């Protein structure tokens, strides 16, 4: 008899969770992405003890139909793609159908949802299995609570940094969502204190001023341009506002926050010699393109992307930044000593 066995889903989901759910921030990211994909305009995230005790995300989106409640925790089950063609034309933030299966395998999850504005339903999931299903009071939309994250994976729990650091990471991802979707009203509540509250009025400058402060907001300039394949818009801070790391540079492709070495290089080339060595700008840039030109299926967290026609996009970005800085005469003035 052979020795190979197919793993039970409760184990294979935990293995997948190891990649997708690294810390409370990853749970917040996945739940908020789902809320955005559901068409929500108001999204509230509440955390207790930096999310290690509890994370609750409430949205006013589509809600979930009764039949789907059974399927939403199954790995590779998704409402967002169906076939090969869809996989190469992704417009939603999610598509892998593995976040909820992963989260549910390392925590205790409750979903309360209302799909038709009338009947609310609740399910409780422990170790990936539905343990309770009832009718419940609910408003249109969905509320997902994740409790006792990593209760059954002690090694992962041990690896968590201080509550302060974990909360900082959650704040960070929420700020990226606010810059990525300024039309959505986001709130972050930590241990009953409101930490972040965006207006959702679509004003990027206002969103950035809440995140980076008034001083930066007053010194932001808009960039805007396109080539055949790419459209680039955004706000860049004048070169005198530099930072010691790349953290303050946010790049979004079709709404998704991404990290990309070559595009970062193009931005720095745009500023050219105006940035002192080891200093980086503050900016938020939105790139819109045909989803067929970007492969987001590179890494489970979907932050890494591969781009077709990358050089074209790089030169558009550096050109736009360069033009703006010279055109507006934004070069910091060096005082001459007499
Ligand atoms: P994916 O987002 O890749 O499809 P997930 O595991 O994150 O996979 O979610 C599984 C499915 O559950 C989604 O495809 C969606 O249909 C449904 N879902 C999850 N969260 C929400 C939500 N907040 N509102 C509506 N539907 C949701
Ligand atoms: Mg998802």
Automatic annotation (TrEMBL):
<comment type="similarity">
    <text>Belongs to the DNA mismatch repair MutL/HexB family.</text>
</comment>
<keyword id="KW-0540">Nuclease</keyword>
<keyword id="KW-0378">Hydrolase</keyword>
<keyword id="KW-0227">DNA damage</keyword>
<keyword id="KW-0255">Endonuclease</keyword>
<feature type="domain" description="DNA mismatch repair protein S5">
    <location>
        <begin position="208"/>
        <end position="326"/>
    </location>
</feature>
<protein>
    <recommendedName>
        <fullName>DNA mismatch repair protein MutL</fullName>
    </recommendedName>
</protein>
<comment type="function">
    <text>This protein is involved in the repair of mismatches in DNA. It is required for dam-dependent methyl-directed DNA mismatch repair. May act as a 'molecular matchmaker', a protein that promotes the formation of a stable complex between two or more DNA-binding proteins in an ATP-dependent manner without itself being part of a final effector complex.</text>
</comment>
<dbReference type="GO" id="GO:0004519">
    <property type="term" value="F:endonuclease activity"/>
</dbReference>
<keyword id="KW-0234">DNA repair</keyword>
